[in-house]
Amino acid sequence: MYHIGGYDPFGPPEVAYLRFKREVGRFESAWSVTSDVSPAQFTSDEARWLIRTEGPNWRVETDYRLFRWDDIIAKRALQSPWKRLSRGMFAFLEFVVFGALWGYLRTNWYYAVFFLYPFLLVALSVAAAIMVAMVAARTSSVAGIAAGFLAFTLFMLGPWRWLHLAPLFDDWIFARAYVHDGDDTLKKRLDRIADEIAYVAPRSDADEILFVGHSLGAVLAVDLIDRVLLKNPSFGEIGPRVAFVSVGSSILKIGLHKGAKRFRSAVQTIASAPGIFWGDFQARVDIMNFYDVQPMAEMGLAGNARPLVRLVEIGQMLEHAMYRRIRLRFFRLHCQFISGNDRRAPYDYYMLVCGPLSAESQTLTNDGAMSMIREDGSLDGVFVEKYTKRSSAVSVPQ
């Protein structure tokens, strides 16, 4: 299982590992199962650990690989606020001129709001600084310039940090760079992992190779799978089944930019690959994803049957009190796609990763794993032959 996370500037892979261990406890409680997570191993390319999960009549072992690009994100965060500001505004103008903003407005207006939010705040701060400068200029022009500069500097020292505008600017700066040529370190890392997958996949005794791309990580997942297919065109046809699950996806964030021809070509390749199943999960309350849209159609690509789009309700995943606490914390809502659920629901990240049912089967059924897993955590025998991962140790009473 390969997890490719989004543009998350808030922690190294050690933090992601601890978060995974914490959240798996919620999965155990919701589904009446037990899990054991091994210590993590870290390399420059990935973090990895094993998860052994059991129900009363099944057992699954997952080799979990977390794709690392936290160092790339951290390096970009070191640029000065002024450089970040100028590059961010240039990225904003490019996404407007090359049609992305119009695409956001056409497909999902609240994603357009998410896009505009940091840039509008900066524009308002500039307008406020100009007003301060105009008032002070009544004394002298020098006083006006100094007052305006001071007002904008105070914004950079205060609201810029309090409202977390820096990582939002970094996100869009990275997105613009990715549209054009991307990051050399990132490309080499994707190539190394693609080489390994292309070589190992046909020889693997695993039941399923699963890619989960969250947020902007869905874009990198497309890139990674496209590279694997270039090296091994029969990927998914020979060896284990292959599933790609994009969740809270930013695929259209890049794909609606008219200059992203290379990326759209990669999307088309994956959608056309006969050995790869692709499911896309979208949530209405998450303003950082696109809801109720078919990505291929919106990008003007052929093959509208892929991905299989599933709409999920985050409120159904959580206890009511928990949902009320986080419903206005938009980044936290966005991260529920990769967090443990309080309740059984059609979409459950940990069931996809650790459960006995293939990701494809969970996506194809309207209620995910809910009708296949009994209250005591056992697997319903009706679904064993059709839906289980082949190597799950399953013993179903007759």
Gist?
With about 400 residues, the protein is α/β, with parallel strands linked by helices. About 50% of the residues lie in helices and about 15% in strands. It has helices at about 15-30, 70-75, 80-95, 100-105, 110-135, 140-155, 160, 165-180, 185-200, 215-230, 250-255, 260-270, 295-300, 315, 320-325, 330-335, 350-355, 360-365, 385; strands at about 1-5, 35, 40, 45-55, 60-65, 210-215, 240-245, 275-285, 310.
Q: What features would you describe in this structure?
A:
- Mean pLDDT is 89; it is low at 391-398.
- With 398 residues, this protein is an alpha/beta fold.
- Strands 1, 2, 3, 4, 5, 6, 7, 8 and 9 form a nine-stranded mixed β-sheet that branches.
- Helix 10 links the parallel strand 6 (208-214) and strand 7 (241-247).
- It has two domains: 2-71 and 188-387, no CATH class; 80-176.
- It is built from 19 helices and nine strands.
- The radius of gyration is 23 Å and the shape is globular.
**SSE order, one letter for each helix or strand:** EHEEEEHHHHHHHHEHEHHEHEHHHHHH
Count of discrete domains: 2
Q: What is the overall number of helices?
A: 19
Mean pLDDT: 89
Distance between the termini: 32 Å
What fraction of residues sit in β-strands?
5-15%
Instruction: Write down the Rg.
Output: 23 Å
Shape: globular
Structural class by sheet pairing and helices: alpha/beta
Number of strands: 9
Largest sheet: 9 strands, mixed
Helix content, binned percent: 40-55%
Could you list the spans in which at least 5 consecutive residues all have pLDDT below 50? 391-398
